[in-house]
Each structure stands twice: as structure tokens, then as C-alpha cells.
């Protein structure tokens, strides 16, 4: 149970984390530059190898190796490169290829739409009910404060479909379909987003399911299936990592009332309580885009993600200093917790004492 800090403690928390952020930003340099260039080189090499091996798709080992390499390439492009570059983590390098305003990733979601729904809406209003649309993605019930209705009995089914088709779910996210359905937003207002979705989506579909399969001639079908499998692997991986960083047991949500007129320290407090980490080794962290350090990412979204493992011990020490929880655990533990919540929240509330609902009531007191 997280304590409610005093105004003086909130101010001190803000100063501690601002000092840490400033220190890391002042230290950015050649090592960070070399790191992202190396990751891009590996990603491109994996894509070339994967697509090359699919030309030998008549040999099952070559097909499997090709799909594996292409899956890793898509994961790196999505997680460690695309997500982090579009957060502006490498804008200081002044390289157009790694500039947040110009970068486009290998997924059907247009960068411009994603940057609005994710960088602006989600990171500004992290875990604020009614403001952060990433709570349930407009599809799922992921918090007890979301009013239950019979539709949510399908929560596990919707979550499974979202995981399988995750890039498409991310693409559609910025349409705010639930607001259109409720009349809060006119369909005509979505025209700019829909135009970008159409242009980006059709390019991706042609590339993965027509152009590259056609280049392999008689191996069109094995290549198409290989590309679809690589996309599926990337989708399942991204869904798992993102949901483990936002929805395990212990992650708290907030109301608009209690976050009104937030100070810097209170904003940091919300990021800490509204996030969770996943333990693992260096390769695991790279493949997650270092979103296995979701707490650090929510605190400092514009700091190069490779720095998160380095500063995690300091962030954890700051949490301990103020008596705040530092939610972390293995992938199996966090993922099991997430799916337990998805199933539990498919049903009407039966919140026992000691849950995060009690924390919300205590903060409001």
C-alpha cells in the first residue's frame, strides 16, 4: 500500500528525480550513439537474413530460421528502435533517420497517429481513468472503476484477439471508436487519422503479403505464411511486454479529481504507482525495448531506453526512501497476474479489502 506523501515530500521527490534525469541527459554521448546504430545494424541484418532464408523456404529448417530472424527484426524495429526513436530519445543526435518527427516503423500503425495516442495522451494522463485510453484500449475492462456490463464477459476473448492482431489494434486506437459510438465524437472528425491509416496499412499489407512473397516466385505461399508468422510473433511479444508494464496486480489507477493541479512530484508519484517492471537479462531487456523497465520509462520517456537498466537501482532506492512500492517480477509472474486480472474483471466487482481500490479511497481521504 503506497503512502500518501506530504507536500514537502512530493517536492523533494520531484527534486530527486529531476536531478537524476538532468544527470543522465548531461551524460548522453558517443556510447548512446554507437548503441542505437549497432541495434539498427543488427535489425537490418536480421531482416535481410530472414527474407533471404525464405527464398529457401522449400527447406523446412531454412523457413524456420527465416521466420525466426524476421520475427526478431520486427521486434527490434517495433520495440527498441521505433518506440524509443518516436519518443524523441535520439533527437539530440540530429540524424534524420532517427528523428522522432520523421521516423516511420514497420507496422500498420501510422507514426503520427501513434505519437498522439501514446506520447501525448498516454504519457500525459498515465493511468487516469477517463483520460488514459490505454486502460483497456477502449476494448477491455482493466480496472474495477470501469463500469461493468455484460459485454465484458468476453474480456478474455477480446484480450486474446487484441494480442494476436495487436498492430491492428494499435492502428485503430487513435480513432477513439468508443467516443464515436457514444456520440462524443463525430465520425467525420476521424478523417485525418483514417487517411493516414489507409495509406500506411495498404503499404504494409502489400509489402508483407504481396511484394515479398511474389519475389520468391513459386514459394509465394510459404513466404506469405512466414511473413504472417513473424508479424504474429511480434504482435504477441509486444502485447505481452506492454500489458506486463501497465496492468499487473499492484499497479494503481487515479481519478481526474485527485490529479488536478498536480505538482512535478505528484506527476512522478503517479508514474511510479501506475507502472511495473519485468526482470530479465540484458538480451531480454533489449528485445523489450527496455520497456521491461516501464517504471523508468514512464518517469523519463525521452531518455534513451538503454539507460533504464543503469538508473533502475537509483529509482528503486528513491522509491524506498519515500516508502513507495517498486513493482517488479519475472515475465511469467507479471503475465499471469495480467491475465488473472483480465479474467477477474470480466465479472462484476468483488474487490476484497486491501486492494488498490482501498488505496484510491485512502488517497482521496
Automatic annotation (TrEMBL):
Domain of life: Bacteria
InterPro entries per record: FA_desaturase_dom, Fatty_acid_desaturase
Residue ranges annotated for the Fatty acid desaturase domain, each copy included: 62-328
PANTHER family tied to this protein: ACYL-COA DELTA-9-DESATURASE, DESB (PTHR19353:SF84), FATTY ACID DESATURASE 2 (PTHR19353)
Record-given protein name: Fatty acid desaturase family protein
Protein's organism: Actinokineospora guangxiensis
Amino acid at each position: 500500500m503506497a503512502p500518501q506523501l506530504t507536500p514537502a515530500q512530493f517536492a523533494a521527490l520531484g527534486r530527486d528525480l529531476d536531478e537524476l534525469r538532468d544527470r543522465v541527459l548531461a551524460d548522453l554521448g558517443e556510447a548512446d550513439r554507437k548503441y542505437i546504430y549497432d541495434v539498427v545494424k543488427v535489425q537490418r541484418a536480421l531482416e535481410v537474413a530472414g527474407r533471404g532464408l525464405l527464398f529457401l523456404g522449400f527447406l523446412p529448417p531454412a523457413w524456420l530460421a527465416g521466420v525466426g530472424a524476421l520475427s526478431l527484426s520486427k521486434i527490434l524495429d517495433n520495440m527498441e528502435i521505433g518506440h524509443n526513436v518516436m519518443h524523441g530519445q535520439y533527437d539530440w543526435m540530429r540524424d534524420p533517420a532517427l528523428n522522432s518527427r520523421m521516423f516511420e516503423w514497420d507496422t500498420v500503425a501510422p507514426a503520427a497517429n501513434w505519437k498522439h495516442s501514446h506520447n501525448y495522451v498516454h504519457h500525459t494522463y498515465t493511468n487516469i481513468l477517463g483520460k488514459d485510453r490505454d486502460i483497456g484500449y477502449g476494448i477491455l475492462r482493466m480496472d474495477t472503476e470501469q463500469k461493468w456490463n455484460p459485454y465484458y464477459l468476453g474480456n478474455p476473448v477480446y484480450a486474446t484477439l487484441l494480442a494476436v492482431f495487436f498492430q491492428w489494434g494499435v492502428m485503430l486506437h487513435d480513432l477513439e471508436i468508443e467516443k464515436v459510438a457514444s456520440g462524443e465524437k463525430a465520425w467525420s472528425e476521424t478523417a485525418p487519422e483514417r487517411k493516414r491509416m489507409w495509406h500506411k496499412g495498404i503499404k504494409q499489407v502489400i509489402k508483407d503479403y504481396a511484394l515479398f512473397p511474389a519475389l520468391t516466385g513459386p514459394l509465394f505461399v510459404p513466404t506469405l505464411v512466414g511473413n504472417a508468422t513473424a508479424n504474429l510473433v511480434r504482435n504477441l511479444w509486444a502485447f505481452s511486454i506492454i500489458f506486463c508494464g501497465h496492468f499487473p496486480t499492484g499497479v494503481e489507477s487515479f481519478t481526474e479529481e485527485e490529479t488536478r493541479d498536480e505538482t512535478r512530484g505528484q506527476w512522478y508519484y503517479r508514474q511510479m504507482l501506475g507502472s511495473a517492471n519485468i526482470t530479465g537479462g540484458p538480451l531480454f531487456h533489449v528485445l523489450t525495448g527496455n520497456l521491461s523497465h516501464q517504471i523508468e520509462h514512464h518517469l523519463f520517456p525521452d531518455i534513451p531506453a538503454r539507460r533504464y537498466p543503469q538508473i533502475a537501482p537509483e529509482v528503486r532506492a528513491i522509491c524506498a526512501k519515500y516508502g513507495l512500492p517498486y513493482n517488479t517480477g519475472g515475465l511469467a509472474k507479471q503475465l499471469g497476474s495480467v491475465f488473472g486480472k483480465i479474467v477477474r474483471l470480466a465479472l462484476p466487482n468483488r474487490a476484497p479489502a486491501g486492494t488498490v481500490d482501498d488505496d484510491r479511497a485512502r488517497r482521496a481521504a
